Amino acid sequence: MKEPEPIVFVIDDDRMIREGLQSLIKSVGLRVETFASAQDFLVAKRPDTPACLILDVRMPGLNGLELQRKLSEANAHIPIIFITGHGDIPMSVRAIKEGAQEFLTKPVRGQDLLDAVQKAIASDRELRKERAELSEIRSRFDSLTPREKEVLDLVVTGLLNKQIADELGASELTIKTHRAHVMEKTHAESLAHLVRMAERLKAALRK
């Protein structure tokens, strides 16, 4: 299956900067969409494809840091490259702490920006792949019956079938059957694989 074409979004209230960035990004064969404000970006329909956002910090209305927060609150995952002509260290630290991929000061050197864009798109590809895998694992685990989930919880702690049977007040044969169903429904290739999937899902749910 062909991967969707990545896209770079640019938000800057300065038309000349928008056009300059658009030309630079297109020069390396990347698709780009520009916006004059954060509000315009928020109401636009965005394709489901690997992407990154080049974002000016200081803009009229909703500024860059406020947009970053809104996207985070909406669980909208997109790597952000901040650019600013008025940046300071506290501002850049805050942006990075809140998940920004990069923080560059104007005038931005073209190659530095292109390198940051490629890194951000690669990061988004990896995160999208991870989210898809987690979604698939969650779907498999959700297909388990309540009893199979109880067996799963005890299996991943390392208990043997006999010990699980004693814990749940069932026969060892019944537990063996439930365990087989758990392995089949989760597509687990081994006990170690089952444990890794369960731990990965648990870690994701804690976030």
Number of helices: 9
How many separate domains make up the residues?
2
Spans of at least 5 consecutive residues whose pLDDT stays below 50 are none
Radius of gyration: 24 Å
Structural class given helices, strands, pairing? alpha/beta
Oligomer: single chain
Q: End-to-end span in angstroms?
A: 30 Å
CATH class of the largest domain: Alpha Beta
The ordered string of helix (H) and strand (E) elements is EHEHEHEHEHHHHH
Write the CATH architecture name of the largest domain.
3-Layer(aba) Sandwich
Helix % is 55-70%
Please name the CATH topology of the largest domain.
Rossmann fold
Strand content: 5-15%
Strand order of the largest sheet: 2-1-3-4-5
Rough shape? Answer: elongated
What profile does the largest beta sheet have?
Answer: 5 strands, parallel
Q: Care to count the β-strands?
A: 5
Report on this structure.
- Strand 1, helix 1 (15-26) and strand 2 form a beta-alpha-beta unit.
- This protein starts with 6 loop residues before the first strand and ends with a helix.
- It is built from 9 helices and 5 strands, in the order βαβαβαβαβααααα.
- It has helices at residues 15-26, 38-43, 64-73, 89-97, 110-142, 146-155, 161-168, 172-186, 191-206, and strands spanning 7-11, 31-35, 51-56, 80-84, 102-105.
- It folds into 2 domains: 7-128, Response regulator (Rossmann fold, 3-Layer(aba) Sandwich); 143-206, Winged helix-like DNA-binding domain superfamily/Winged helix DNA-binding domain (Arc Repressor Mutant, subunit A), CATH 1.10.10.10.
- The model has no long low-confidence stretch (mean pLDDT 90).
